[in-house]
Amino acid sequence: MEISTNFPPARSASSAAAPRLTLSTLQKVAIPSGAIWFYILFWEERPALNVLLYTLFVLIVGLVELPRHAPQWRSSGFRLTLAGTVLSAFIMAWYGSGVAFLAWLASSAMWLGYRNQPHLKLVVYAPLTAISSALRAVPRLVQLLVLPRSLDGRVERAWFYGRLLVLPLVALLVFHILFAIANPVYSALTERVLNTIGEWVEAFFEVFSIPHFLFFLFGLALTGAALVSVPVHYFADKESRFGEFVLRQRDRVASFAVRRPDFRSKRFGALDLRKEYLVALSMFGLVNLLLLVVNAIDINWIWFGFKPAADFDLTQFVHEGTYVLILSILVAMGIVLWFFRRNLNFYERGLPLLRWLATVWVLQNAVLAVSVGLRNCYYILYTGLAYKRIGVYFFLLLTFFGLATVLLKIWQRRSAYALVRLNSLAAYILMIGLACGNWEIWIARYNLRPELHELDYGFLLDMPDRVLPILAAHPEVLTERHLVHEYYSNWIELNPEAAAQRLQRRLARFKEKQETRNWPSYTYADWQAYQQLEGKKL
């Protein structure tokens, strides 16, 4: 099987232009076919089943083009993003949620990047490599539309003979006008023929109008960029300069020698290693004491038996407190990365004590993250679930992982590159996990529980259509709950009758949309919701 793109070597060092792009037979057929397939699937359609069908087309062609022993098959990043692309595409066909669409975009770009450079380790560089390859592939594909030089003579010959037909065509037009005036039967027949041709031309331009044509060109460019891989080595070369561990440096930092401080000097130069050690030791010691007080207050106040008073501002307690605590955790991680970035990792005299103080600080930040999670839990318990409140827990999971990697940096002398690589990989896996959840259904079911007396019903009415059967199955909440809605950080009361009318309008509009949708816009969740509503005859 041919490799997807072949670039012949330059014959001389003075070759100015880039090597001409050559396509395999499969690519010559797949690129226009994929553009037509893209047009059929996505023109005036929403992302749903069409995402899965188009993704399977691109993946199958891209995998068939790879040789059996290609290095891509041995790349863990290539296999991981391939699985993530397939999974997120199936989730799009199942739920059609926004987070699933974001996961599909990210996974597809990463997979194309790993197919281009399978040895990449930093997942951030994979989509950048894919974008760089697309920016180079599309202009070269345009060059293939230029006629070869061997056809120049034929085109000139055709133009020469075409000009000879000008006079006969003028004579034909003159006689046609004369016959149309003299013969009424010929005139009527000509009129019918011209009307038929006019209808064909009108129908053609209705289908192939400028917006349609531009959309087809977009699909052609997108398919070509996905199926043609132009090697991009910039990010792979840049990544090769980074190491997994911190190395001792003698030329860019101060020496290990302990110098007598000159208190009379007003110049502030680079701190030597001992001074940097003393600064780090004092900082970790002081902030550990401060954080110990904060954690003791949170454990005593929040962890056990927390019950807010009637006039307690729970919103301020969660929103402002959570954001500030998360910011403090991020600052703490940044300080650890700063002090352990270079030769302080090799200061054997005081390194054990410094490591233990930094470890205690990291663990105390983990305790602080638990307090943030409890604040969010109490807020959910009293006010219900929402997107941001779920996002806080996913961010805390990523924070715990980040704190664990900071411990690796402290005790194993890991580099900042290693931490970025591990945390970006964890963020990608977490994004795929977030896309797998049917969060709107779970939010609606949790918020409709009887224990929640005040209900943000406007938030539920703004959810996707797949939530409608659950709302229709609980009409009692309209009269038994205190209905509110958050509007620009202000809570307003909802009239139960107005809320019921709004629900009925949404139900009718959903049924109408579902009955008129084309098959590329189908999702299983919407089909299931439609069947439930039809079964209940709502």
Q: Spans of 5+ residues with little confidence (pLDDT < 50)?
A: 1-17, 251-270
Shape: flat
Residues in helix, %:
55-70%
Order of helices and strands: EEHHHHHHHHHHHHHHHHEHHHEEHH
The N- and C-terminal alpha carbons lie at a distance of 57 Å
Quantity of strands, as a count: 5
| Largest sheet geometry | 3 strands, mixed
- Individual helix count: 21
Strand order of the largest sheet: 3-4-5
Percent of sequence in beta strands: under 5%
How many domains make up the coordinates?
3
Category from helices, strands and their pairing? mainly alpha
Query: Mean of residue pLDDT?
Result: 83
Radius of gyration: 33 Å
Characteristic key phrases:
538 residues; three-stranded mixed beta sheet; 3 domains; 3% strand; flat; two-stranded antiparallel sheet; mainly alpha
Describe the structure.
This protein has 538 residues and is mainly alpha-helical. The protein has three domains: 144 residues, no CATH class; 142 residues, no CATH class; 97 residues, no CATH class. It has 21 helices and five strands. It has a three-stranded mixed beta sheet with strand order 3-4-5. Helix 1 runs antiparallel to helix 2, helix 4 crosses helix 5 and helix 11 runs parallel beside helix 13. It is flat. The N terminus is likely disordered.
Quick structural overview:
This protein is mainly α. It is built from 21 helices and five strands.
